[in-house]
Design goal:
Structural class: alpha/beta
CATH class of the domain at 7-15 and 69-111 and 235-444: Alpha Beta
Strand order of the largest sheet: 1-4-5-15-10-11-14
CATH topology of the domain at 7-15 and 69-111 and 235-444: Rossmann fold
Shape: globular
Number of helices: 19
Length: about 450
Amino acid sequence: MDRNLTKVLLDESEMPRRWYNLVADLPSPPPPVLHPGTHAPVGPDDLAPLFPMSLIEQEVTAERYVDIPEDVLDVYRLWRPSPLYRAHRLEKALGTPAKIYYKYEGVSPAGSHKPNTAVPQAYYNAEAGIRRLTTETGAGQWGTALSFAAAQFGLECEVWQVRSSYDQKPYRKIMIETFGGVIHPSPSTLTAAGRAVLEKDPDSPGSLGIAISEAVEIAARNPDTNYALGSVLNHVLLHQTVIGEEALLQFAKIGVTPDVIVGCTGGGSNFGGLTFPFLREKLAGRLDVTIRAAEPAGCPSLTRGVYAYDFGDTAGLTPLMKMHTLGHDFIPDPIHAGGLRYHGMSPLISHVYELGLIEAVAIPQSECFAAGVRFARTEGIVPAPEPTHALAACIDEALRCKESGEPKVILTALCGHGHLDLAAYGAYLAGEMTDHTLPAGRLDAALAGLPTVTG
C-alpha cells in the first residue's frame, strides 16, 4: 500500500476484538490500591458499591487480553475503526522532513475517544442490573460519552460537570441532555461534598476531584446506582487500547513504524489507549520508539507532582492510589483544557513513568492553542483543547527534525474535535488567553495535605 496516503483505513472486519492489558508485560506490577481507612489492599467487596463485578475483575486482571463483548463491538461499529491520517499539509507548512500521523478519535458520536470506555462500562452495568450511572466530567466529553452509552443500554445518567467548564461550554450541557443525561454544575448543593466546598468558597470554579466526590457520594448511597469513571483506572485504560491496536494494524498496512509517539495526559486514558499496545511491542524488542506525555503547565502532575499515595477525589471518599499527584486538595486554574484539570495521573501511567518507559513535558496553553490553530489551518480539523498539548509537542519534535534533517515518523492521537470549545479559540484569537503557572508555594500547600501511608 502507498506510504503517502492521506488516510489509512481499516474495514469493520479488521477491528480488534480484544483489549490489551499492559500490566501483563511490565517488569514489575504497579503498587496496590489501598483502603482509605485500613490502608490494606482493597478487595472486590470494597469496590462493589461503585462498580459491577465484571469491571472490578478487569481492574485487577493479570491477563494479557480481555475479549470485547459482541454487544460492545456492535456499538463500536458506529465509528470504529477510526482513521489514521498523515498530516501532509502540516508537514509542508513546517518545512520538516518528519512524517506526522494522527489517529483521529473525533469521529465518534461524542466527538472524542471517551465512548471507547463509556460503551463497555454502560454494557457491564446494564448486565449487572444497574438502573442509573453517576459520573463527573471536565470539558464535558466524558459526560457526553457516558450519556450516549447509557442510552444504548437503557440506563439513566447523572453528570456533575466542573463549574468552570460548565460555564465556559454551554453547548456541552445541551448535548448531554440531548443524549438523555441529567447534568449539574459542580460543586453543587445536592451532595454533602459539594455543600462543604461551597461553604468555604461560594465562587469555587470546581475541580474534577470535587465532581468525583459528588458523583461517588450519590452512587454509594443508592443500591440501583453505580459510578463510572472516564479515566485514571486500569479498566478504563484497558478499553481505550482499541486506539493503539488499530494504529498498529494501520501502520502495518503501509509498512511504517513510528519513532516518536506523543499523547496528551490529564488522567491518562487517551495516552494509555494510544501508547500501551506500542509499549508492548517496545518491551518485546520489536519496536524502538520514544513515548512522550504532554500535559498542561497549569496542572503538571507528571512533571511537578510527587509519586505518592493519594485520594482520587477531593473529599477522600475513594481508595488510595499511588500516582503522580499535585494533592487531592489542589484546585487547578480554570484552563481551557478542562479534561486535563485533574490533580493526579493514572496509577498505571505513573508506574510506567517511574520505570523510565515514557517521558513527559508540560506546555503552556497559549502555545497549545497556537498549535491548534496551525493544525486547523493546514489539516482542516479544529482540535479540542486537550490534544493541542500533544500537537504542540509534535510540532516541537518536527521542528527539531527540520534542524537535524532526521525524517522521523511521529504519531499522536487527536482525541477529539473542538467544535464545542470555540469560546476558548475565541479567547486565544482575541489575545485574551492567560498562561497559568503553578507557584511552588501553592503546590507545596496542596501536597501538605497528602495522606500518611505507612508500611
